[in-house]
Amino acid sequence: MGRYVIRRLLQMIPVFFGTTLLIFLMVNVMGDPIAGLCGDRQCDPATAAQLRTEFGLDKPVWQQYLTYMGNIFTGDFGTAFNGQKVTELMATAFPITIRLTIVAIVFEIVIGISLGVVTGLRRGRPVDTVVLILTLVVIAVPTFVTGLLLQLLLGVEWGIIKPSVSSEAPVDELIVPGLVLASVSLAYVTRLTRTSIAENARADYVRTAVAKGLPRRRVVVRHLLRNSLIPVVTFIGTDVGALMGGAIVTERIFNIHGVGYQLYQGILRQNSQTVVGFVTVLVLVFLAANLIVDLLYAVLDPRIRYA
Amino acid sequence: MPEQKPWDETTGSGAISGAGAGGGMDLAMDEGTTLEKTPGGPEGTGPAGKPRSLWSDAWRDLRRNPVFIISSLVILFLVIISIWPSLIADQDPLDCDLSKAQEGSQPGHPFGFDGQGCDVYTRTVYGARTSVTVGVLSTLGVSLLGGVLGGLAGFFGRGWDAVLSRITDVFFGIPVVLGGLVFLSVVTSSTVWPVIGFIVLLGWPQIARIARGSVITAKQNDYVQAARALGASNSRMMLRHIMPNAIAPVIVVATIALGTYISLEATLSYLGVGLKPPAVSWGIDISAASQYVRNAPHMLLWPAGALAVTVLAFIMLGDAVRDALDPKLR
């Protein structure tokens, strides 16, 4: 186990540097990092040159990248366009997005897995067909359309929720945005669970459990579900990163001041330090989530051994 | 992973799952099979006594699948109106009259007008061109790049494979929408090319992984070993023996991906970094409509509905093709 963790950690290193380098290049080579510093006007050449020297932008790109990474590892993520430290922005933005992501994942687990179990046990029945068609529709309608429609119906027409979330973003205001964020993944979780359950429902151990007279509930939850969850856990784990990155759309619709909002501002103001900083943290979250998923396998399925 | 054997137990359950109407439209692995479809079975031979190939077998399945027929018809319609939008819309999508802004349905303007006074019906029809172009060209680009790189890595293995695996890991670490914002925010062109380029850049690793796995499986087959023993060159083995047997999963994933690329283009356009006006795109229209949604919901509903139907059609087509092509499901 310990050796496996170490090997996985070592494998993460090139991926981490590759991803951050890619984002760094996108921001710094394709865009002009100082263009946003003089407000909406063009910088005059003398100021521009001075700013370039000040930020080290006259050095080769690889050197800039190394300096930036060096700073990050000492906890210095640079300054945002309004003079705030990027780390301060993160301290306010990440808790909000993490709350939103947790709400979304709870929806995925509770609704997705329940629907998957129900349909997996009743394959071919009307409930199965209806849920399958619904999941297809949810997958086909892009998140921003779902979000806008729910905002229109629940927020504006019926007044059940507030159309935009306040800046503290308490959990109760995040329920509908969380559902929107989760919607597509929810449909995938349902389908994945359904297939997995339907496959395992015919396994010998399930027949044994039924034959020895266990209550149906126990057969489903303890025997069937536990064995069917592995692909689902993989999906949800890798989805954590995608949800936090994809939250940018949901956050824009419901005006939530989370990671997506800050990133969007950073991109609009062409502030490379905000963008690269936030993306770097998101990449770390993504890698960590993948690692945790791999380690969870052993908990869910003792047959899996790590060499 | 515990061994998953979708085909071991299908014979017992074929009747049950095959009866489900949903069996034909499942995105996840599904075993909608019956015994008689087994290649080489009594019905596995054509009229000429020649064994049917995977492709003709798949085509026979597809022709009977209502999901395939409906989604193909929708897609055919979309393709026709994206080539000749004037067939059903005789106005100009950029011909707008501000005095009619946000007005509802009128004779000759069934969907009403948008915030700029443009005809929503015309813009919705013309938006199909953008979506279909982005979807088809991105999928072609992604399949070519991903298929070739993944296939080569799978064929040559070792160092190539390790390098490719790490590179795909890197691209998988970047959230797509986020990458799109960063990458496309610096582009000012209002054509579809930057969006297509971006989708190809971030999309190819997905296909590369599929192609790699599929080539590795095909490579171990006896007929490939036989070809190698007979002195076939690498290129002959790849093109004649491996590719025809490894391409099916790539086609399936690419078809489903086509729908998601259309959705991605609309999302990026909604965020203001995909296509930019004066391009006509459902994403742009939905984004513009979202400001007036309280007074004029029709501006949002028509392009959003068109987008949803289009994406749904491609995803369902991919689903049906998967059911027909995936030999594991037989």
From TrEMBL, chain A:
Q: Name one GO biological process term.
A: transmembrane transport
- Which PROSITE patterns does the protein's record reference? ABC_TM1
Question: Does the UniProt entry include the keyword Transport?
Answer: yes
Q: What is its main location?
A: membrane
* Stretches assigned to coiled coil: none
- Could you tell me the membrane topology recorded for this protein? Multi-pass membrane protein
Q: Which Gene3D superfamilies does the UniProt entry name for this protein?
A: MetI-like
Q: Which residues form the ABC transmembrane type-1 domain?
A: 94-297
Give the record's keywords alphabetically.
Cell membrane, Membrane, Transmembrane, Transmembrane helix, Transport
Protein location: Cell membrane
Q: Where are the transmembrane segments?
A: 12-31, 96-118, 130-154, 174-192, 224-249, 275-300
Its GO CC terms are: plasma membrane
Q: Which family does it belong to?
A: Belongs to the binding-protein-dependent transport system permease family.
Q: What is this protein called?
A: Binding-protein-dependent transport systems inner membrane component
Q: Which organism is it from?
A: Streptomyces pratensis (strain ATCC 33331 / IAF-45CD)
